[in-house]
Amino acid sequence: MGKSSPSPPPAPDPVATATAQGVINADTARLQGRMNRLDQVTPYGNLTYEDLGNDRSRATTTLSDAQTRLLDLSNRAQETYGTAALNQLQSVQGQLSTPFRYSGPSMQSEIADRSLGVQSGLPNRSLEIVRDVQDRTGELQRGVLDRTGELQREVLDRTGELQRGVLDRTGELQRGVDLGNRADFSGIGDPNQSRNAVESALMARMNPSLTSNRNALEARLINQGITPGSQAWETGMRDYNMQENDARYGAILNAGQEQSRLFGLGFGQTDLRNRAALDSGNFANAALGQAGGMDMARGQFANAATGQVIADAIARGQFANAATGQAMADAIARGQFANSATGQANQMDLARGQFRNEATDQLNQGDLQRFGFQNQAQQQLYGMDMGRAQFQNAAAQQSLQQQLALRGQPINEASALLSGQQIQAPQFANVPQTGVQAADYQGAVAQNYAAANAQYNAQLQRGGADTAAIAGLLGRGLGAAGFYFSDRRLKRNVERISTGFHGLPIYRYDYLWGEPAIGYMADEVAAVAPHAVMVGPDGFAQVNYGALK
Q1: In whole angstroms, what is the distance from residue 436 CA to residue 110 CA?
Q2: Residue 353: which residues within 8 A CB-CB, separation 6 or more?
Q3: What whole-number distance in Å separates Cα of residue 46 and Cα of residue 16?
Q4: φ and ψ at 424, to 5 degrees?
Q5: End-to-end CA distance of the chain
Q6: Nearest Cα to 77, choosing from 311, 540, 419, 440?
Q7: Which residues contact 240 (CB under 8 A, 6 or more apart)?
Q8: Residue 452's closest CA among 463, 464, 460, 440?
């Protein structure tokens, strides 16, 4: 019982694989050679390929008729040009064997040195510059008469005359009133007793009517053929009970409203009495506050008078201090005037020194201009010497070029004879090279073998899992009885994996709700062991694995 283990895939033969790969590579190379040998036809000639066998070929270039004639003419012309050039070279052979000697004007490599005529220094006039002026700082006035001792720094202290307190009347204030501890319902009555009385009166008036209505409803239901305890009876009585309860709730609500009204009257009467007591206490306290305000006003008036006396004394002191300050300001102004005159004398000294220094600088600028003109003249003479030398060297260079041209002319003529008309060779287009990749036979064999091994390993793993699942299934059959869903309609992806009790096939499958499982098919079990199959209330067959042992 069970499923046989899979066999491992056979390993590939390396020699046969390498041989097959070599044959494929050779066929690929021959195909590439044939594809890359393309015959070409141009206006100037053709290029053709010929297969020589044994993987060899020949490329032949054929000129057009016009190019063939040009080739013949070119060959004859080259022969004529070569003969003429040889004769020309023989005629100048003696001239070329003689060394070249230049016979023109000589080059000038030096000019006169005129640096000695350049003026590089000026007279030193720095001793004539004025670097200082007369020191007049000793003439400045640095201070004025100190009059701070004449200032008035204090006035008479009258703070002891100020009134700092008024009569304390806080002990006369009324701080509490008697507002009572309970609500006053005198002349109104007890609200709770009134509520009960109203509720009893309403109920006494309403109960006979409710009893009569209930009896009438029961008689009406019986006359309609509705018996007590039926659904219709219960529905009708439930509706009536709800109406009766609503009526009773209404009576209770009306009694509560009467109770609330009486409570409001009692609390309102109590609030009026409390307000009267509060108003009396507030009036007494307001009178005491007014008396305290009058005391405060008298004290403030006395203090204001004392303050006015102090202000008068301060004003007199400030007037005296202002006069002293004015005397100080006059003394400072006189000192500033004297210092300003001293500063003006100093500025005049500076102006005279600057005028003298400017005259000295003007003399120095005159020296610079004279010496600059002299140096410019020397530079102009140097430029004229340079121009004459360059003219002489240009003439010598021109004479050298003429002599070299005369010596090389025969050689140029011989070279021209040797370079004749050339034939137009055909220009063939570059043929795109086709590269055919040889099939990777060895790689394919190795990949196929690796895939077979992977499949073999997966089968081994799945076989091990199936074996463990089958062992669990058979163990479940040897244990306590229990029914499991085995209806074929509930399964998909069904695959037989082994054989179980009574030769019944064991399958691997997925339930429709996605759960994987291993087990029997209920219809196959019913054929050999019908006592082990049961159909549930849902219409799907179940198998008792415990009944199969």
Answers
A1: 76
A2: 130, 132, 133
A3: 46
A4: -80, 105
A5: 15
A6: 419
A7: 213, 214, 217
A8: 460
Contact 247, 202 (CB under 8 A): no
Would you give per-residue pLDDT tens digits along the chain (549 residues)?
Answer: 445 556 677 878 888 888 888 888 888 888 887 788 888 888 888 888 888 888 788 888 888 888 888 888 888 888 887 787 777 777 777 766 677 676 777 777 777 777 777 776 767 777 778 777 788 888 888 887 888 888 888 878 888 888 887 788 778 777 776 666 566 666 676 778 777 888 888 888 888 988 888 899 889 989 998 988 899 888 888 988 898 888 888 888 887 887 788 777 777 777 777 777 777 778 878 877 887 788 788 888 878 888 887 887 788 888 878 888 887 887 788 888 878 878 887 888 888 878 878 877 787 777 777 777 777 777 777 777 777 777 777 777 777 777 767 766 666 766 666 565 455 566 666 656 666 677 787 787 777 777 776 776 666 566 556 666 666 666 554 444 568 888 999 999 999 998 888 899 999 999 999 999 999 999 999 999 999 999 999 999 999 988 887
| Tokens 């004398």 found at | 345
Smallest Cα–Cα separation from 479: which of 540, 544, 419? 544
Residue 88's nearest CA partner among 355, 304, 409, 381 is: 409
Q: Name which of 165, 102, 46, 87 is nearest 402 in CA terms.
A: 102
Query: In this structure, what token pair is assigned to residue 33?
Result: 């050679």
Q: CA nearest 357: which of 533, 541, 128?
A: 128
Q: How many CB atoms lie within 10 A of CB 361?
A: 13
545 backbone dihedrals φ, ψ, rounded to 5°: -65, -30
Rounded-to-integer distance, Cα 187 and Cα 309, Å: 70
SS3 assignment, position 411: helix
- The first and second tokens of residue 308, run together, are 């006015």
Strands 491-499, 483-485: pairing is unpaired
Residues in the chain, overall count: 549
Residue of 519, 518, 520 whose CA lies nearest to 465: 518
Q: How far apart are CA 75 and CA 82, in angstroms?
A: 11
Task: Give buried/exposed letters for 403-438 (b at 16+ CB in 10 A, else e).
Answer: eeeeeeebeeebeebeebeebbebebeeeeeeeeee
- Say if residue 500 is exposed, middle or buried (CB neighbours under 10 Å; 0-12, 13-18, 19+): buried
For residues 507 and 521, the answer to whether their CB atoms sit within 8 Å is yes
CA atoms of 543 and 522, how far apart (whole Å): 6
Give the pair of three-digit tokens for residue 130: 């004025």
- Beta strands 541-544 and 491-499 are unpaired
Task: Indicate the angle between helix axes 441-478 and 14-36, nearest 10 degrees.
Answer: 140
Locate 483 and state its tokens: 């029914």
Residue 487 CA to residue 17 CA, distance in Å, equals 52
Largest CA distance in the chain: 171
User: What are 73's two structure tokens?
Assistant: 């003419």
Q: Model's pTM, two decimal places?
A: 0.26
